[in-house]
Write a structure and sequence with these properties.
- The chain is an all-alpha fold.
- It is built from 14 helices and no strands.
- It is globular.
Length: 256
């Protein structure tokens, strides 16, 4: 990183900023994540045609989405979207935009967009887009009752697991656990959440841990177990809070 800076290699510096922002996002160091996002965004907004700008929009949008600021997330995803996506950056913005559509209660448009993303990303051999798009489409199918018990989603999760697309696999597992719980199979849902926590030992993704522990907390009957899980939730939230000290992040964290 320092060498690229000394040599004035703008593209490489921005690429590394985006990469570092993604790493810090996973481990919950949101101050460092925000700093690297801002560096890449402010540098690349002057040359958006170089495409790294799209990746900067994506990581910035993810920061806002995870904190629950969907309006700011949408603005960044829209800035990073081309009408006809062909590369990873713009595909990713389209993908996360679909998550916002679902959160806003617009699954019909999300389903239409996701089907196109799946088709186009497969044609461009972008499986890192294709796999999560299929998982999110599985979420829409659950919503419409087209896969009420999550059997099709489970097949997708197993395929993703075999291909080692970890983040997509965890997102799919969370959806699958919700589907199992919704159909009264609490034991299966609890087992999935526990599996998420076990598998995350390798990845150390703080957001996955919060999702899994929160799901467990809703399902457990034992007051003692619930207390232990609540302690873990608070510990992970505190971990994010300790690294959310910059003014824009502090505001978002307090709302979150």
């Amino acid at each position: 990183y320092s060498l690229a800076g000394r040599l004035g290699m703008r593209w490489w510096i921005s690429f590394l900023d985006v990469l570092l922002a993604r790493i810090y996002l996973v481990i919950g160091n949101m101050d460092a994540c925000w700093n690297h996002f801002q560096l890449a965004y402010e540098r690349e907004i002057k040359v958006p045609e170089d495409r790294i700008f799209l990746l900067a929009c994506s990581i910035g949008g993810q920061i806002y989405r995870l904190y629950g600021d969907l309006k700011s997330a949408k603005n960044l995803f829209l800035r990073g979207m081309d009408p006809d996506p062909q590369d990873f950056g713009t595909f990713e913005n389209h993908l996360y935009y679909c998550l916002l559509l679902i959160a806003e209660g617009n699954p019909v448009e999300a389903q239409t967009r996701l089907k196109k993303i799946i088709e186009d990303s497969c044609g461009n051999n972008l499986m890192a887009i294709n796999m999560p798009a299929r998982v999110i489409l599985g979420e829409v199918m659950l919503f419409f009752g087209q896969d009420s018990e999550g059997s099709k989603l489970q097949e997708i999760v197993q395929e993703i697991d075999a291909r080692k697309y970890k983040i997509s696999m965890f997102y799919g597992m969370g959806l699958l656990a919700e589907a199992k719980a919704a159909h009264g199979n609490k034991d299966a849902a609890i087992a999935i959440y526990r599996s998420m926590l076990s598998k995350d030992m390798e990845l150390q993704n703080v957001w996955i841990r919060i999702t899994a522990y929160s799901g467990l907390y809703k399902l457990l009957n034992s007051a003692e177990e619930k207390q232990k899980v609540k302690k873990e939730i608070n510990k992970n939230l505190a971990l994010i809070g300790e690294k959310s000290t910059l003014p824009p992040l502090r505001r978002l964290y307090l709302i979150y």
